[in-house]
Design goal:
Layout: H1 2-23, H2 34-51, H3 53-58, H4 66-78, H5 85-101, H6 104-117, H7 122-133, H8 138-144, H9 146-156, H10 162-169, H11 180-187, H12 192-195, H13 200-210, H14 214-221, H15 227-234, H16 248-257, H17 260-265, H18 267-282, E1 291-296, H19 311-326, E2 329-334, H20 352-360, E3 366-370, H21 381-393, E4 406-411, E5 414-415, E6 420-421, E7 430-432, H22 439-446, H23 455-470
Parallel strand pairs: 1-2, 1-3, 3-4, 4-7
Antiparallel strand pairs: 5-6
């Protein structure tokens, strides 16, 4: 019995950490400030590293957000000497693979933090060396992230070519560089035409130095902008962007940032872009989920915070379009009762219980609830409805196959005080979600939260995910 109980506790600990690492970025949420978020998250990382290090490292293969992935990598490197050679080798593979997926600016920030902490063991130097050597365009990095590259080169004692060394440390002694982008950077100090051959963030500084008018600069630098830079400037400047190419959740955030009148005017364009992005995420699974009903939270708390403006609502809106693509029949139910998803805005209480009753009445095969879980109109009704459903109407999932309902709660908000995302009812699995793009894999992971699948199967699932992540046999 004690062993079973220990396994149950371990399973809950792992799922608690995964939920936190998916949802929390250490920033202010609607109900908790940034200090509470960081303190809670730091405790969880330390707890997992100390008690479940193997699982902690394997979390790099899951859909944890970039903020937490960087913390995991940092902690594993800081305490590299605490495990044996074989474990370090596997951790090294997971670290290297995850660093490949992170935005380069976050990786350089991580390397700078390792320098600040004085972490300079052989393993850390090898990780930095291999990541730098694998960069597709090192010269581009040397220009765009010049200050960070200098710090990293010094810290890891990296060997550079003569021209790379001169560019970083003695650029003003060089009359001309053979590397084109180095030469453009040198010329940009005194020649305006050279500015427009540089990355946007670098060129922006030179434009200010030369006193170039903002509108002239943006018009000429536009071909050098990244997709994200175009989206950020789309509202404030005449910059063209193909919205259909944007990541789904980020696109939903952009749509929600527009005034209601503009959303109505651009209805066809915005709807088309969101559906294009959703179909791209759904891929071959389009239409394979049968009858799906979603309870989606657009209450006032979906406003988020100043740091994560409308983020919970953006996740719900993106989930709406993704579920529409995955389902054969789709019924969306917003907590506000609104039916026009393009004109949503955070407002009102959170009547989750009432909407769940409505949802079960549609006879779905899958019921997904996307909400921060603050059921308050009336308080606790959602938990009662779900409890009655599981204990009286569908005990042990024994209904005939045509009448069974897979119910999953996806929560985009980390609850710092509970070290987890807020749950609706014990019998309903809850998983943290940050990007709607991860919804299919999170629904798969959530089944472990029901308590019917043990630690061994959870470990096997993590091993399988890690093997697929690394591209090697499990």
């Amino acid at each position: 019995m004690s062993e079973t109980f220990a396994d149950l506790v371990a399973c809950e600990d792992v799922l608690m950490f995964v939920n936190a690492a998916i949802t929390s970025t250490g920033q202010r949420e609607f109900h908790h400030d940034a200090g509470e978020q960081r303190l809670s998250l730091d405790f969880l990382h330390e707890y997992m590293l100390e008690n479940y290090r193997e699982v902690y490292a394997a979390a790099l293969a899951l859909d944890v957000n970039d903020h937490n992935a960087a913390i995991i990598v940092r902690n594993l490197l800081v305490r590299a000497g605490e495990v044996g050679v074989e474990r370090r080798r596997r951790e090294g593979l997971l670290i290297a693979r995850r660093l490949e997926t992170l935005p380069p600016q976050r990786v350089y920030r991580l390397f700078r933090e390792l320098r600040r902490l004085g972490v300079n063991n052989r393993r850390t130097r090898a990780v930095i060396r291999d990541w730098m050597a694998a960069r597709r365009d090192p010269a581009f990095d040397f220009v765009k992230y010049r200050g960070a590259v200098k710090d990293v080169v010094r810290h890891a004692h990296l060997r550079l070519g003569d021209e790379q060394h001169d560019f970083l440390f003695t650029p003003h002694r060089v009359k001309s560089f053979r590397t084109p982008i180095f030469e453009q950077w040198r010329r940009a100090h005194y020649e305006q035409a050279a500015i427009y051959e540089l990355p946007y963030t670098v060129a922006e500084g030179f434009a200010a130095k030369h006193g170039i008018a903002r509108e002239v600069f943006l018009e000429r630098i536009e071909p050098k902008m990244t997709r994200l830079e175009r989206l950020r400037l789309h509202k404030s400047a005449d910059v063209q962007v193909d919205l259909g190419e944007m990541p789904l959740t980020r696109l939903a955030s952009y749509v929600l940032s527009l005034p209601l009148d503009e959303r109505a005017e651009r209805r066809a364009e915005l709807s088309r872009a969101l559906r294009t992005a959703a179909r791209r995420v759904a891929g071959a699974a389009r239409g394979s989920w049968g009858r799906v009903t979603a309870v989606l939270d657009d209450s006032y708390s979906s406003l988020g915070s100043g740091q994560k403006r409308r983020r919970p609502l953006a996740v719900a809106l993106a989930a709406h379009y993704l579920l529409e693509a995955l389902a054969r029949e789709f019924t969306p139910l917003w907590t506000s009762g609104r039916t026009d998803e393009l004109l949503l805005y955070p407002s009102g209480p959170t009547p989750l219980g009432l909407r769940i009753i409505d949802a079960l009445g549609t006879g779905p095969e899958r019921l997904l609830i996307v909400s921060d879980g603050w059921d308050n109109a009336p308080p606790g009704l959602a938990a009662d409805v779900l409890r009655v459903w599981r204990t009286r109407l569908d005990p042990g999932h024994r209904l005939a196959p045509g009448h069974r309902v897979l119910i999953v709660h996806l929560n985009p908000v980390y609850e710092a005080g509970d070290f987890d995302v807020r749950r609706l009812a014990p019998g309903v699995p809850t998983a943290g979600v940050r990007d709607a793009e991860n919804l299919p894999t999170l629904v798969e992971l959530a089944r472990f939260a029901e308590g019917r699948v043990g630690l061994d199967k959870l470990q096997a699932h993590l091993d399988d995910r890690a093997a697929r992540f690394l591209g090697v046999p499990a």
